[in-house]
Design brief:
TIM Barrel, 8-stranded parallel beta sheet, two-stranded antiparallel sheet, 41% helix, globular, alpha/beta, 328 residues
Length: 328
Amino acid sequence: MAPDTLTLAGTDVSIPPLGVGTWAWGDKGTWGMGGYDASLNEQTIRDAWEASIDAGVTFFDTAEVYGRGESERIIGRLLAEDPARASRAVVATKFMPSPWKVNVRGALLSALRASVDRLGVKKVGLYQIHGPISLRSHAALAEALASAHQEGLTDAVGVSNYSPAETRSMAGELQKRGLRLASNQIEFSLLRRAPETSGLLATCAELGVLPLAYSPIGQGRLTGKYSSANPPKGKRTFSAHPMEIIDHVVDELRAIGEQHDGKLPSQVALNWLMAKGAVPIPGAKNRQQAEENAGALGWSLDGDEIERLDRVALPGIRSFQNRFWQHG
């Protein structure tokens, strides 16, 4: 069974073994808020926030680019309106290291100050480099993160989409500056097992870096509510395998879930990730989704069930976008 809490390296910040990804909060293009998904609004998000925290899922991941800052603004309003739950929440956000941001220290500090302003907080629990696309060195990025930490704008620092070698390099540069690399956020699911087979999980374990798994249920594809006859809407480009292939994975999830008092396919998929040592951060658009996510906690798959899922897991899709953005 996953531990009750995990501590971000080099800090006293504790997070649960399951979090919430908030890409959909305020996003129209991919997730349809204000567009094709009329059911997604700020009230349903508030319901998801309340249900998540009440279930002990208190870690929320956002980014400056989600909804062009609207995800952070929504979280800021929730924090301000609900101080009791806010006191339990740990918020992580990210810096987009676009190649043209040559003065990376100045750009990062400016971006983080804007993020904490939108969030209405003095600092965040975790600040992450969003992807391995900066033209500056790991030393320059580490120096920028160290400055953010020194200024009291973040408790912990992390990266996202970094390869094993990049993770090791960044950890080393941060160590020179008296900091630990707390996390590497990567796409990891039964539809993209690459972080395990590439050795990234082993590298993270060696370095004490916590793997955070985004798109842990394949952008909804592992919930069981989609099929080849009913594919998901929007621009959900991660793990976009043909649904005919995914259906076989969902069948195995459903069969295992039935052996655990009717656990949902998504709950089994999340439990598999926790068994691998990752912290999944599924999205939650409403109370029901938040409660379903929390149903992945409090029980464990056995070794045989993990092996069954390993056998049907897909390695991932190697596209140009993935090669550019997803090194991890």
